[in-house]
Design a protein that fits this description.
By secondary structure, the protein is α+β, with helices and mostly antiparallel strands. It has a single domain, classed as Nuclear Transport Factor 2, Chain: A (Roll). The protein contains 5 helices and 4 strands. It has a 4-stranded antiparallel β-sheet with strand order 1-2-3-4. It starts with 12 loop residues before the first helix and ends with a strand. The N terminus is likely disordered.
Length: about 120
């Protein structure tokens, strides 16, 4: 099954249901993807994350549609699993979808502008 072009830049209701269903059945916490080591936040943020279990509120507020994602958060993001990515429509040219701290986020790669966010509620 090949990906189909998106009619707009937002996740549809069907996309949201598919993503939440996938992560509900397959989410194991942490991140190791295809033999790669877990990604790390910058040391200061890592300490805060280890204490609280989530990104600091200031960073969470920056993760909103239309905002530019900070480079450290962007680098911390991980691609969706291949089997899920293949089932989703192709987004706008130059965009990619990342999973960051229980959120699935579509961004424009060059500018890191956030196009859409789906909170997985995990």
């Amino acid at each position: 099954m090949s990906a189909k072009p998106a009619t707009n830049r937002l996740f549809s209701d069907d996309d949201r249901h598919m993503i939440r269903d996938y992560y509900g059945h397959n989410y194991h916490g942490g991140y190791e993807h295809e033999g790669k080591k877990k990604k790390r936040l910058p040391p200061g943020l890592q300490k805060k994350y280890e204490r609280t279990g989530e990104l600091p509120p200031g960073w969470q507020k920056k993760l909103q549609r239309g905002e530019v994602m900070p480079i450290d958060v962007y680098r911390y993001g991980r691609p969706l699993p291949i089997d899920l990515e293949r089932r989703l429509p192709i987004g706008p040219v130059g965009s990619k979808v990342l999973e960051i701290e229980g959120k699935v986020i579509r961004v424009i790669e060059n500018t890191r502008e956030i196009l859409d966010i789906l909170d997985l509620g995990l």
